[in-house]
């Protein structure tokens, strides 16, 4: 019993620990028969069916039979084998032509189960693509492959970055070494060049000093000669300028004398003109004062005339009132004066106003407009203006 139990435990442990795989057939392509033969009785394409068997205890056991793909040379549909298989299992894939009378074997292929994705050719099968994987679907396998590829790419990227970092560090170390070596060599070259430059500068200073002394001597000699020539030239030029200035001063004095004489003549003429202007100004002021007095007198006459006109208007109004009063008295006393129309009365008033305005002096306007004069005017209104004027003058003389 213990022995049997141990064997059973080993079997179950092997079953539990063993990994299962899934089989997928993605494409089948069957070639045509030779010599003008056909797969089908009706001269059509084969009716393809896939059968898978697995070896178990030295026997082949059928684990999968697919649907029949009628009249197909190529099957592009994915065929999923639902029965899982274990690693290192032996299987046979049969591709058969399904027929009424008998089934023709198109081809078969023996495989050992392991993770794979292949395309095989056998018998009349030109192409058979299959996938053996641990995943339950091709989509899951694709995602896992993408994830794996992504992890590989990330690892490659990290490795490349690390490689770049290492190369950069190596390059930096190499450059640091080269920089130090170059710096040491540069310091050495600088020291040598500095010594050579100092020696060259000392030699150049010596040569420059000798050359400057020689040039200074030549310059001093040339300067003394040039100085003497300039002194002689300046003395001659100064003498000529002094002579020219004396001549210019004499001419300028002559011009000043002429200008002074002309100025004196113009001053006398200006003085004479100023006297004439003063005299004219005095005459103009006198005339202006006379004209101003005349204007003031005319203004006074105008004011007096305006006053006289106002008095005449007042007298005319009194005269009209007296005429109305006389008419009333005549009517009351029973007199029968000649009646005057409004038009005749207006003409009489205008004639009286005209006569009064023609008087030349204010004294002549002091006429005593008594009742007799007004009655005579009213009675004799039909007479001519000359007779009326004569009567008025007679009353004015009384």
Automatic annotation (TrEMBL):
Top-level taxon in the UniProt lineage: Bacteria
Coiled coil start-end: 143-214, 239-336
InterPro entries documented for this protein: C2_domain_sf (IPR035892)
Keyword annotations: Coiled coil, Signal
Signal sequence extent: 1-18
Native source species: Uabimicrobium amorphum
Record's protein name: Chromosome partition protein Smc
């Amino acid at each position: 019993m213990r022995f049997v139990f141990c064997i059973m435990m080993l079997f179950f442990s092997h079953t539990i620990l063993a990994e299962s795989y899934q089989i997928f057939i993605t494409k089948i392509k069957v070639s045509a028969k030779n010599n003008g033969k056909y797969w089908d009785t009706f001269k059509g394409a084969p009716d393809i069916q896939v059968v898978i068997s697995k070896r178990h205890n030295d026997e082949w056991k059928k684990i999968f039979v697919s649907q029949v793909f009628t009249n197909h040379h190529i099957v592009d549909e994915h065929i999923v084998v639902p029965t899982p298989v274990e690693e290192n299992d032996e299987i046979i894939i049969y591709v058969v032509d399904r027929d009424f009378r008998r089934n023709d074997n198109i081809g078969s292929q023996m495989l050992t189960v392991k993770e794979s994705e292949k395309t095989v050719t056998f018998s009349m099968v030109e192409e058979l693509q299959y996938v053996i994987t641990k995943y339950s679907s091709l989509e899951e396998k694709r995602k896992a492959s993408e994830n794996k590829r992504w992890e590989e790419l990330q690892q490659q990227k990290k490795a490349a970055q690390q490689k770049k970092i290492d190369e950069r560090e190596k390059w930096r170390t190499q450059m640091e070494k080269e920089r130090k070596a170059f710096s040491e060599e540069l310091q050495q070259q600088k020291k040598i060049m500095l010594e050579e430059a100092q020696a060259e500068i000392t030699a150049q200073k010596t040569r420059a000093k000798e050359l400057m002394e020689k040039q200074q001597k030549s310059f001093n000699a040339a300067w003394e000669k040039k100085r003497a020539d300039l002194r002689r030239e300046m003395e001659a030029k100064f003498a000529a300028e002094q002579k020219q200035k004396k001549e210019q001063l004499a001419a300028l004095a002559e011009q000043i004398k002429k200008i002074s004489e002309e100025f004196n003549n113009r001053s006398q003429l200006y003085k004479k003109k100023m006297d004439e202007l003063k005299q004219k100004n005095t005459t103009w002021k006198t005339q202006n004062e006379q004209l101003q007095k005349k204007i003031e007198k005319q203004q006074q006459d105008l004011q007096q005339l305006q006053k006289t006109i106002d008095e005449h208007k007042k007298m005319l109004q009194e005269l009209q009132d007296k005429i109305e009063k006389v008419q009333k008295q005549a009517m009351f006393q029973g007199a029968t004066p000649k009646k005057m129309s409004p038009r005749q009365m207006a003409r009489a008033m205008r004639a009286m106003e005209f006569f009064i305005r023609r008087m030349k002096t204010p004294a002549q306007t002091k006429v005593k407009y008594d009742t007799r004069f007004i009655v005579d005017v009213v009675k004799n209104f039909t007479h001519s203006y000359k007779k009326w004027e004569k009567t008025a003058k007679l009353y004015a003389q009384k």
